[in-house]
Amino acid sequence: MSTDAIRRIRRFNRAVTAEVGALDTSFLGRGRPLGAARVLNAIGHGRGEVGSLRDYLGLDSGLMSRLLRSLEEEGLIVTLPHPDDARRRVAALTEAGRQEFAAYEALSNDRAAELLARFPKGDDLLRAMDLVATALGRERIAIEESDPRSEQALHCLTAYYAELGRRLATGFDVSLSRDPEAADMMRPRGTFLIARSDGLPIGCVGLKGKGGETAEIKRLWVCPSARGLGLARRLMEAAEAAARDLGIAILRLDSNSALTEALQLYRRTGWVEIDRFNDDPYPDHFFEKRL
Amino acid sequence: MSTDAIRRIRRFNRAVTAEVGALDTSFLGRGRPLGAARVLNAIGHGRGEVGSLRDYLGLDSGLMSRLLRSLEEEGLIVTLPHPDDARRRVAALTEAGRQEFAAYEALSNDRAAELLARFPKGDDLLRAMDLVATALGRERIAIEESDPRSEQALHCLTAYYAELGRRLATGFDVSLSRDPEAADMMRPRGTFLIARSDGLPIGCVGLKGKGGETAEIKRLWVCPSARGLGLARRLMEAAEAAARDLGIAILRLDSNSALTEALQLYRRTGWVEIDRFNDDPYPDHFFEKRL
DNA sequence: ACATATACCTGACTTAAGTCAGATATTTTA
DNA sequence: TAAAATATCTGACTTAAGTCAGGTATATGT
């Protein structure tokens, strides 16, 4: 029972170790020890400060320093004192460093493409990988404000509309619903929050304000591979915090009885059901929460 | 599109590297370098021959030899010449070695249990992990003969019956079907094959003979996480090979129109539809293949 | 029976990785 | 402004890992 689960997890670990090891290997093969390659790649991925590099890679400060020196001698990076605190130092790629980093990226992409090409059922595999990656990286899910017209926001909204279309008995047509103006979901009137796991957008929520003390929660969505991790609740909490920050006292939202998990969440987190407050054709449940 | 897939695979790799690294760490912490610990564990998992250890762990022969010596000096293993070829050597755990191996196993199990405990949606996660592990370990799927009454065989059969119950419009009750006698699915009359990925049973097929030149294929099943990898075809090929080996000339099988993938497989691999040859209530399609 | 191949071992080496005790420069605190 | 704290660096180490050229014992082919 539970030993079966443990066996399955260990099997997963074994299966994945071989693949991951191979990906690690792609960091070799450019004539540079693994440690130096990892530092170069971390810098390429935007981690400039030496302290943050040390934390991320889990290296001793002496070792870190030496690795930076060796990359500097190769002409791949330069280090400068931090503008706010001259004790700290910040590393940045030189032009040669950018090229070398791009070469590593290309290697990693090739390895990933190769792996994908080996599998006939690529879609199922990718979905399963997303689920595992999101679950394992749960502590690292970040919720941040974003422009509701950004690419990632549109990705979320498209998925949200598609899901409504599947789940509502009537289907869903955005043009019939009240599509909020982008400006109403941006500061200072409102905001739009995206949850990302390792950069991949996996959930969103909009706060649509009109400048008054009342605002609406819109577009709460969590991608299927991230459900069951309490993310919807975290998104709602973040939206409420943003609303307080914007001086909003009363929040409202509308929903549909087909969205059972959402209704359950609202009822459990202090929302009270109120009368219909708009003539949108899709919602049949209306809620309010005083902050 | 495809770059999205690559991004997702790389994200999976990043997420998993951290976990796998932590599991690796559990191999430290018993006062022994990683290399020696890995050798000890490989021996504990039944890999006794020095050559096979070397292949499995990818180590140089000199290094391998030294690691074996260090384990020997610790009193954890003994090495003996191979009975068939005195140039080769075989390593085996001593009593102390068995205890030390058990301690490593306990550590690994604890790590896995810990990981599992961290996740509310354990079941979905496990299913996704199974799928990923099976896909990644596809080359390592082994098909072997087994007693049809073994624990792993029962695991497969139970899952098979459950799936029939779900998929047949009428449901499925084993007791109404012709449950084959175990002896008919064992040599010399027939056989029972189990497909395992890294030890986990993921598919099966039975060959039920009566001692004559005709036999029946029964109980073809592939677990959901392993579908789409061509495993059913491999199982059927293995069953046919076993049938030839047993001197069987004519194979038959029955199936149900709800099992569309199976019917498709039979039609594509040289089976021809024939008249009903039994009075089992569930099947509505009957096939034959001459070897 | 001999040469050749195979399987493993030993010794001498290189390299990467990691540790630790100061040294240096800068910032913060009293 | 002096003392303490912080961030990084340098030099001197240790250990693990890996490589390579022989060496020994056993097996195989002619």
TrEMBL record, chains A, B:
Tell me, what is one Gene Ontology molecular-function annotation carried by this entry? DNA-binding transcription factor activity
The record ties this protein, via Pfam families, to: Acetyltransf_1, MarR_2
Q: Where is the N-acetyltransferase domain?
A: 141-291
Signal sequence span is: none
> Do you know which InterPro entries this protein is assigned to?
Acyl_CoA_acyltransferase, Bact_Acetyltransf, GNAT_dom, HTH_MarR-typ, WH-like_DNA-bd_sf, WH_DNA-bd_sf
Q: Which domain of life is it from?
A: Bacteria
Keyword annotations for this protein, in alphabetical order, are: Acyltransferase, Transferase
- Name the chain's protein: N-acetyltransferase domain-containing protein
Origin organism is Methylobacterium frigidaeris
Upper lineage = Bacteria, Pseudomonadati, Pseudomonadota, Alphaproteobacteria, Hyphomicrobiales
